[in-house]
Design goal:
243 residues, mainly alpha, globular
Length: 243
Protein backbone atom coordinates (compact mmCIF):
# COMPACT_ATOMS: atom_id res chain seq x y z
CA UNK A 1 0.00 0.00 0.00
CA UNK A 2 2.76 2.43 0.99
CA UNK A 3 4.67 1.59 -2.16
CA UNK A 4 1.60 2.24 -4.31
CA UNK A 5 1.07 5.64 -2.68
CA UNK A 6 4.75 6.47 -3.20
CA UNK A 7 4.54 5.54 -6.88
CA UNK A 8 1.36 7.59 -7.29
CA UNK A 9 3.04 10.57 -5.66
CA UNK A 10 6.20 10.30 -7.78
CA UNK A 11 4.17 10.09 -10.98
CA UNK A 12 2.49 13.45 -10.32
CA UNK A 13 3.67 16.29 -12.55
CA UNK A 14 5.96 18.83 -10.90
CA UNK A 15 3.54 21.72 -10.29
CA UNK A 16 0.76 19.51 -8.92
CA UNK A 17 3.15 17.59 -6.68
CA UNK A 18 4.76 20.77 -5.36
CA UNK A 19 1.46 22.53 -4.62
CA UNK A 20 -0.13 19.46 -3.02
CA UNK A 21 2.92 18.90 -0.83
CA UNK A 22 3.07 22.54 0.29
CA UNK A 23 -0.67 22.58 1.05
CA UNK A 24 -0.60 19.36 3.10
CA UNK A 25 2.55 20.32 5.02
CA UNK A 26 1.23 23.81 5.78
CA UNK A 27 -2.21 22.61 6.89
CA UNK A 28 -0.81 19.81 9.06
CA UNK A 29 1.77 22.20 10.52
CA UNK A 30 -1.00 24.58 11.56
CA UNK A 31 -3.09 21.73 13.01
CA UNK A 32 -0.12 20.66 15.16
CA UNK A 33 0.57 24.27 16.22
CA UNK A 34 3.97 24.18 14.54
CA UNK A 35 2.91 27.06 12.29
CA UNK A 36 0.51 29.83 13.24
CA UNK A 37 -2.25 30.69 10.73
CA UNK A 38 -1.93 34.28 11.94
CA UNK A 39 1.40 34.45 10.11
CA UNK A 40 -0.12 33.10 6.88
CA UNK A 41 -3.42 34.85 6.20
CA UNK A 42 -3.88 37.62 3.64
CA UNK A 43 -3.43 40.95 5.38
CA UNK A 44 -2.90 43.86 2.92
CA UNK A 45 -1.88 46.24 5.70
CA UNK A 46 0.93 43.99 6.91
CA UNK A 47 2.03 43.31 3.34
CA UNK A 48 2.38 47.03 2.60
CA UNK A 49 3.54 48.43 5.95
CA UNK A 50 5.55 45.51 7.37
CA UNK A 51 6.68 44.06 4.02
CA UNK A 52 5.30 40.62 4.88
CA UNK A 53 5.23 39.66 1.21
CA UNK A 54 5.00 35.95 1.97
CA UNK A 55 1.33 36.38 2.90
CA UNK A 56 0.53 36.79 -0.80
CA UNK A 57 1.63 33.17 -1.23
CA UNK A 58 0.94 31.44 2.08
CA UNK A 59 -2.76 32.32 2.08
CA UNK A 60 -3.07 29.91 -0.88
CA UNK A 61 -1.45 27.05 1.05
CA UNK A 62 -3.57 26.78 4.19
CA UNK A 63 -6.85 24.82 3.89
CA UNK A 64 -8.17 25.41 7.40
CA UNK A 65 -8.72 22.54 9.81
CA UNK A 66 -8.25 18.85 9.01
CA UNK A 67 -11.82 17.78 8.31
CA UNK A 68 -13.98 16.41 5.51
CA UNK A 69 -13.84 19.72 3.66
CA UNK A 70 -10.03 19.52 3.71
CA UNK A 71 -10.12 16.01 2.23
CA UNK A 72 -12.51 17.14 -0.50
CA UNK A 73 -10.22 19.98 -1.52
CA UNK A 74 -7.12 17.78 -1.45
CA UNK A 75 -8.95 15.35 -3.72
CA UNK A 76 -9.91 18.17 -6.10
CA UNK A 77 -6.35 19.49 -6.04
CA UNK A 78 -4.75 16.10 -6.64
CA UNK A 79 -7.22 15.16 -9.37
CA UNK A 80 -8.05 18.25 -11.42
CA UNK A 81 -4.73 20.03 -11.05
CA UNK A 82 -3.04 16.81 -12.19
CA UNK A 83 -5.45 16.34 -15.10
CA UNK A 84 -4.90 19.90 -16.29
CA UNK A 85 -1.13 19.68 -16.08
CA UNK A 86 -0.95 16.26 -17.75
CA UNK A 87 -3.50 16.88 -20.51
CA UNK A 88 -4.47 20.47 -21.34
CA UNK A 89 -0.98 21.74 -20.42
CA UNK A 90 1.03 18.70 -21.45
CA UNK A 91 4.53 19.82 -22.33
CA UNK A 92 3.66 23.39 -21.22
CA UNK A 93 4.63 23.52 -17.56
CA UNK A 94 5.45 27.23 -17.77
CA UNK A 95 1.98 27.99 -19.17
CA UNK A 96 0.36 25.99 -16.36
CA UNK A 97 2.38 27.84 -13.73
CA UNK A 98 1.38 31.12 -15.37
CA UNK A 99 -2.29 30.08 -15.19
CA UNK A 100 -1.97 29.56 -11.41
CA UNK A 101 -0.12 32.86 -11.07
CA UNK A 102 -2.84 34.64 -13.03
CA UNK A 103 -5.57 33.05 -10.92
CA UNK A 104 -3.84 33.93 -7.66
CA UNK A 105 -3.37 37.53 -8.83
CA UNK A 106 -7.03 37.87 -9.89
CA UNK A 107 -8.30 36.41 -6.62
CA UNK A 108 -6.06 38.67 -4.54
CA UNK A 109 -7.11 41.71 -6.57
CA UNK A 110 -10.80 40.92 -6.14
CA UNK A 111 -10.46 40.63 -2.37
CA UNK A 112 -8.42 43.84 -2.10
CA UNK A 113 -10.80 45.85 -4.31
CA UNK A 114 -13.88 44.32 -2.68
CA UNK A 115 -12.55 45.37 0.71
CA UNK A 116 -12.76 49.00 -0.38
CA UNK A 117 -16.35 48.89 -1.67
CA UNK A 118 -19.08 49.99 0.76
CA UNK A 119 -21.71 47.44 1.85
CA UNK A 120 -19.59 44.45 0.73
CA UNK A 121 -16.27 45.39 2.34
CA UNK A 122 -17.09 43.45 5.52
CA UNK A 123 -17.77 40.30 3.52
CA UNK A 124 -14.46 40.51 1.66
CA UNK A 125 -12.62 41.37 4.88
CA UNK A 126 -13.64 37.96 6.24
CA UNK A 127 -11.86 36.16 3.38
CA UNK A 128 -8.46 35.47 4.90
CA UNK A 129 -7.38 32.46 2.83
CA UNK A 130 -7.86 31.92 -0.90
CA UNK A 131 -6.66 28.32 -1.15
CA UNK A 132 -10.17 26.94 -1.69
CA UNK A 133 -10.84 29.56 -4.37
CA UNK A 134 -7.70 28.67 -6.32
CA UNK A 135 -8.61 24.99 -6.19
CA UNK A 136 -12.12 25.79 -7.42
CA UNK A 137 -10.62 27.84 -10.25
CA UNK A 138 -8.73 24.75 -11.47
CA UNK A 139 -11.92 22.70 -11.34
CA UNK A 140 -13.69 25.38 -13.40
CA UNK A 141 -10.95 25.54 -16.06
CA UNK A 142 -10.86 21.75 -16.31
CA UNK A 143 -14.65 21.62 -16.77
CA UNK A 144 -14.39 24.15 -19.62
CA UNK A 145 -11.71 22.09 -21.34
CA UNK A 146 -13.67 18.83 -20.91
CA UNK A 147 -17.35 19.84 -21.06
CA UNK A 148 -18.75 16.56 -22.44
CA UNK A 149 -17.29 14.07 -19.96
CA UNK A 150 -20.05 12.27 -18.06
CA UNK A 151 -19.74 12.37 -14.29
CA UNK A 152 -21.66 11.18 -11.25
CA UNK A 153 -22.12 12.99 -7.95
CA UNK A 154 -22.01 10.54 -5.01
CA UNK A 155 -23.89 8.07 -7.21
CA UNK A 156 -27.06 10.16 -6.91
CA UNK A 157 -27.25 11.65 -10.41
CA UNK A 158 -25.17 12.04 -13.54
CA UNK A 159 -24.21 15.17 -15.41
CA UNK A 160 -21.61 16.43 -17.84
CA UNK A 161 -18.38 18.08 -16.68
CA UNK A 162 -19.57 21.47 -17.90
CA UNK A 163 -21.91 21.60 -14.87
CA UNK A 164 -19.36 20.36 -12.31
CA UNK A 165 -18.64 23.81 -10.76
CA UNK A 166 -22.36 24.46 -10.34
CA UNK A 167 -22.92 21.03 -8.77
CA UNK A 168 -20.12 21.68 -6.27
CA UNK A 169 -21.51 25.14 -5.58
CA UNK A 170 -24.92 23.60 -4.83
CA UNK A 171 -23.26 21.06 -2.54
CA UNK A 172 -21.57 23.91 -0.62
CA UNK A 173 -24.97 25.51 -0.12
CA UNK A 174 -26.47 22.24 1.12
CA UNK A 175 -23.75 21.62 3.71
CA UNK A 176 -23.89 25.23 4.88
CA UNK A 177 -20.37 26.35 3.94
CA UNK A 178 -19.57 29.76 2.52
CA UNK A 179 -20.15 30.01 -1.22
CA UNK A 180 -18.10 33.18 -1.61
CA UNK A 181 -14.83 31.32 -2.04
CA UNK A 182 -16.37 29.05 -4.68
CA UNK A 183 -17.83 32.01 -6.57
CA UNK A 184 -14.47 33.79 -6.51
CA UNK A 185 -12.84 30.69 -7.97
CA UNK A 186 -15.43 30.58 -10.74
CA UNK A 187 -14.83 34.26 -11.55
CA UNK A 188 -11.06 33.76 -11.74
CA UNK A 189 -11.46 30.57 -13.77
CA UNK A 190 -13.83 32.20 -16.25
CA UNK A 191 -11.52 35.19 -16.61
CA UNK A 192 -8.66 32.87 -17.52
CA UNK A 193 -10.77 30.73 -19.86
CA UNK A 194 -12.10 33.79 -21.70
CA UNK A 195 -8.73 35.50 -22.11
CA UNK A 196 -6.84 32.31 -23.01
CA UNK A 197 -9.36 30.34 -25.08
CA UNK A 198 -12.27 32.53 -26.20
CA UNK A 199 -10.73 35.95 -26.82
CA UNK A 200 -7.85 34.65 -29.03
CA UNK A 201 -10.37 32.91 -31.30
CA UNK A 202 -12.33 36.15 -31.63
CA UNK A 203 -9.44 38.53 -32.25
CA UNK A 204 -6.45 36.31 -33.13
CA UNK A 205 -4.61 37.91 -30.20
CA UNK A 206 -3.45 36.19 -27.03
CA UNK A 207 -3.29 38.57 -24.04
CA UNK A 208 -2.14 35.88 -21.59
CA UNK A 209 1.00 34.84 -23.42
CA UNK A 210 3.44 33.42 -20.89
CA UNK A 211 6.36 35.80 -20.28
CA UNK A 212 9.79 34.67 -21.42
CA UNK A 213 11.30 34.84 -17.92
CA UNK A 214 8.70 32.32 -16.66
CA UNK A 215 9.36 30.01 -19.61
CA UNK A 216 13.05 30.18 -18.73
CA UNK A 217 12.27 28.70 -15.31
CA UNK A 218 10.90 25.48 -16.77
CA UNK A 219 12.59 23.18 -19.24
CA UNK A 220 9.54 21.90 -21.06
CA UNK A 221 10.10 18.91 -23.28
CA UNK A 222 8.46 18.93 -26.65
CA UNK A 223 5.74 16.33 -26.80
CA UNK A 224 6.41 14.05 -29.73
CA UNK A 225 3.73 11.59 -30.74
CA UNK A 226 5.20 8.60 -32.49
CA UNK A 227 2.90 6.58 -34.76
CA UNK A 228 2.50 3.01 -33.64
CA UNK A 229 3.49 -0.03 -35.72
CA UNK A 230 5.24 1.92 -38.45
CA UNK A 231 7.23 -0.25 -40.78
CA UNK A 232 9.80 1.08 -43.16
CA UNK A 233 10.22 -0.64 -46.47
CA UNK A 234 13.71 -1.81 -47.36
CA UNK A 235 15.40 0.11 -50.18
CA UNK A 236 14.96 -1.48 -53.58
CA UNK A 237 17.70 -3.82 -54.69
CA UNK A 238 19.56 -2.33 -57.60
CA UNK A 239 20.48 -4.65 -60.43
CA UNK A 240 24.17 -4.57 -61.39
CA UNK A 241 24.72 -2.39 -64.40
CA UNK A 242 25.72 -4.33 -67.47
CA UNK A 243 27.59 -2.74 -70.34
Amino acid sequence: MAQAVEEWYKQMPIITRSYLTAAVVTTIGCSLDIISPYHLYLNPTLVVTQYEIWRLITNFLYFRKMDLDFLFHMFFLARYCKLLEENSFRGRTADFFYMLLFGATVLTGIVLIGGMIPYVSETFAKILFLSNSLTFMMVYVWSKHNPYIHMSFLGLFTFTAAYLPWVLLGFSILVGTSTWVDLLGMVAGHAYYFLEDVYPRMTDRRPLKTPAFIKALFADDNVVVRPAHVRFAAPPVQEPHQD
